[in-house]
Structure formats: structure tokens, C-alpha cells
Amino acid sequence: MAIKVYLEEVLKARGMTSKELSALVGITEANLSILRSGKAKGIRFSTINKICYYLNCDVGDILKFDGILDMEDTEDHE
Amino acid sequence: MAIKVYLEEVLKARGMTSKELSALVGITEANLSILRSGKAKGIRFSTINKICYYLNCDVGDILKFDGILDMEDTEDHE
DNA sequence: TCCCGAATTATCGTAAAACAATAATTTTGT
DNA sequence: ACAAAATTATTGTTTTACGATAATTCGGGA
Q1: pLDDT, tens digit, for every residue of A43-69?
Q2: Closest residue, by C-alpha, to the C1' of C22
Q3: C-beta separation of A70 from B46 below 8 A
């Protein structure tokens, strides 16, 4: 995916576990895991908001564009 | 909202109109307007991907956390 | 090498909302 | 004043975020 999720590295930098963050944010560990592993297809601003708040970081620290236009979702593929 | 959308300024910096971007991204002008004005509650990564690609910018240029924990969506409010 | 807690993965269900399509109204630049 | 751009409004469809739950796997001690 062209938009990459860097939750893992920010968590590590903060010395926080997924479990702790999920508790703070109020999201299940399962869903945080999906987000963390890049399997989520989108996200609510309210969720990014809480994540950034509790990790004390900015959106750009967690989500980054790798320069590639992903066409996985353009009808005609596969 | 604690997650702010800076589409307007990036567009301006690129000298591009909303109409042009909506055509490139493949989203309606109406929906881009909602996003641009901060009325959207979330976004798909596929959409951010295209926006970043066509505006040649990173996620952090468009979405920023203003440091405030927004509670507008926490059951008990209002 | 057991344990145990953390993390991942998988299912199923629900509610939210992204986005399309369309059209009307408003704003803005010239 | 005019035309293009942008906003706003409506309605409908479909995606999917996220909850709840549970089973499986991974990882670091003791």
C-alpha cells in the first residue's frame, strides 16, 4: 500500500505497547493490530486524533506516502 | 476538529483548483469540498494516496494534529 | 522448556460514513 | 454582470471501521 502506517515504530520510540495504546485510545487490540499492520483501508479522524494525542506525535509520523500511486482499488486490476 | 485538513493551502501552493484535483483523484467536487472544509469524519487510504500523488506532497502536509484531544465523539458530550 | 502475557488472526454483526450522482445555490474572479 | 468554481443539500449504495469475542501464535523471562 502506498500509504504506510508507522505505528509500530512510534510505539517503540515511546516504549509503549499496542495493548496500552489500545486501552488509551479506546479501540480493541484486534483493530489496532489491523491498523498497525497496514491492513486497514481507511481511518476516522477521531481515531487518528486519539492516537496522535496519546503518542504525542503528528499525523505525518504515523501515516506516510511512499510516492507510489496504488491502483489496487481501481476497478480494473488483478 | 483536532485533526485539521490543509488541502486548501496545498492546492494554492500548487496553483491547482479543487475541480482539477477532483478530476485527477476521481472523486466528486462535492466530496472533495467536504474533505477540504474539514467536514469529513474519516478518509480512505486510497483517497489520501491519490491526493498525495497528484499534489506531490506527504500525508503530513494535508493532515495535521493540532495538539487537542477532541471529545466530540465520546458518547457523553453536548 | 514451560508459562504467560502480548499480539495476531479470524468471525460475525452493526452502525457509521465515504463516496457517487445530481442539482441548486452561492461565491469569486475578471 | 457573467461564467466558472465551489459549496451545500439530498438521496442512495456500499464499503468498512470498529466492537465483541475467541482461538492461535509469538516472545521473553524464570
Answers
A1: 999 999 999 999 999 999 999 999 999
A2: B30
A3: yes
